[in-house]
Structures are given as structure tokens and as C-alpha cells.
């Protein structure tokens, strides 16, 4: 693990070259960047926050076989302009982009940027070089690719204090598996079936995104992922969890947040938590929290007044 802050372009060039592959960095004026790099050998995840700069992988640094890596950048803040293989992509927040270290590329960050880079040997992806090259420097929306969206949530959890998988190596393997599924979909190639770890990450993402759906349950999760109800139960049981319990826990957490931080009427809170009947919502909330929604909100406001 490497956590470093660079206070100059030269420091950032040395730091990013050590973490990824040899690079050249230029910038105008004052510059700072922060790197949180986690992984082993050539496989890693890196959280990058940097100021405006230009990053160049030029022909003089692309000859080493050990540098044959695939880098996939998940953009969370700012923009990234990627140029590789005579293609240019504008990568906005919510997008991702693939670039390959075997070929020259240029990254232009016109302002402050926040991203996470998944870095793996290209042979981990199990796709022909020609197919990967055809997908490089193409902005890919996480909103329209479920596997990519799951991979984004998974790698971000590793840097947010509540990782889905505690083991970084396991996170890398599952994120790579999901990336392969996402890339194969983008390239219109059939994707292999997902492991139970990848399904678990996908199920959790689906649940988090659909808490307002009254029909959210094991049958709906199974249908959305093209697997059997038995598989959903099995994936959660392997982790001593139950899908229904997770849905209930996350809905309760959302209800707490909405009651504490908004002035939404309780029936509207109920709808946003996937329980459109206010009576059922109040009964469920009391069972989980020990107070009615109205009592909970009043207690939170009283606490805020005395804090």
C-alpha cells in the first residue's frame, strides 16, 4: 500500500510512474496530487486525486513486456480526455475508460480530477489484443452497463472505509471478473457466467439501487441477473446472510436518513423505501428501530437542538 501526496509535477511524475508504468507529466502553475495505491506486483487499485495536468505514455517507454497492462479508469469527479489508437474520448463523472500500456496514450485533465484506476495484466482479461485495442479510448457509461456499475461500486468501497470484501486481492479478482463481463458486453461478445463473489457484489448493487421498488425481493433479484432463486439464496447463505434481511436493513437505513435529513412527509418516506403503505412502513420501522417514524424524527430534531 502506498499513500502519498505529491506537491510538484516532478514528484507526481515519479510517484505515478512507480505505481503504474513510466509516464511523463506536465502542468501549468502550482500542482498537487494524492495517490492511494493498493495491490501487489502488476495488479492494483489506485485512488487518484490530482490537479490539472497532462499525462503522456510515449513510444520511448512502451517496449518492456512487463508493462503490458490494462488500465481501467472510473471517473468520479472532473473530466479526463483520453487519446489512444487514433481515438479520443471525453470521460465524465459516471463514465469509465480503458487504455493499454503497450501503446502510447495521452491523458489530459483540464481541471481537478477524482478517479480510481484498476490495473491488471492484459492476459487476466482473457480477450484478444485486437478486441481490447478496439475498446480502448472509448468512454463507457456505468449507468448503462450493470457489470461496470457493480465493478465501480466494488472498487470504490475499498477506499471508502466500508469495503465489500476485506481482502484486497479478492476485491481485485472480482473487480477484474466484472470488468471482463463489462468489456465483453461493450464488444458484443458473450460473457461467461459470474462467480459467486461477483454475483454477491452484483446482488448488493441491485438491492441498493432498487430500494424504492415494492417488488424488490429474491425472485426479482434472480430475474434481473438471469439466475435461479436458489442461486440467490445460496450466494447469501455462503456468507451467513439473507437477501431479505439485507433489503430490510438498507431500507431502514434509508428511512433513518430521510427522516433525519429531510422534511418529507412520512408517507413519502415510505414510498422511497419501497413500502407504499404508511401503516406497514410505520409497523416495520418500529420493529427495526424501536420507535415510530414520527417519534424518531422528533428525537433527532431534539438532539440537533441540543448539540
UniProtKB/TrEMBL annotation:
InterPro entries in the record: AraC-bd_2 (IPR035418), AraC_XylS_family_regulators (IPR050204), Homeodomain-like_sf (IPR009057), HTH_AraC (IPR018060)
Highest taxon in the source lineage: Bacteria
Residues covered by the HTH araC/xylS-type domain: 201-299
GO molecular function list: DNA-binding transcription factor activity; sequence-specific DNA binding
Annotated Gene3D superfamilies: Homeodomain-like
Keywords: DNA-binding, Transcription, Transcription regulation
Pfam families noted in UniProt: AraC_binding_2, HTH_18
Protein name, UniProt field: HTH araC/xylS-type domain-containing protein
The organism of origin for this protein: Microbacterium testaceum
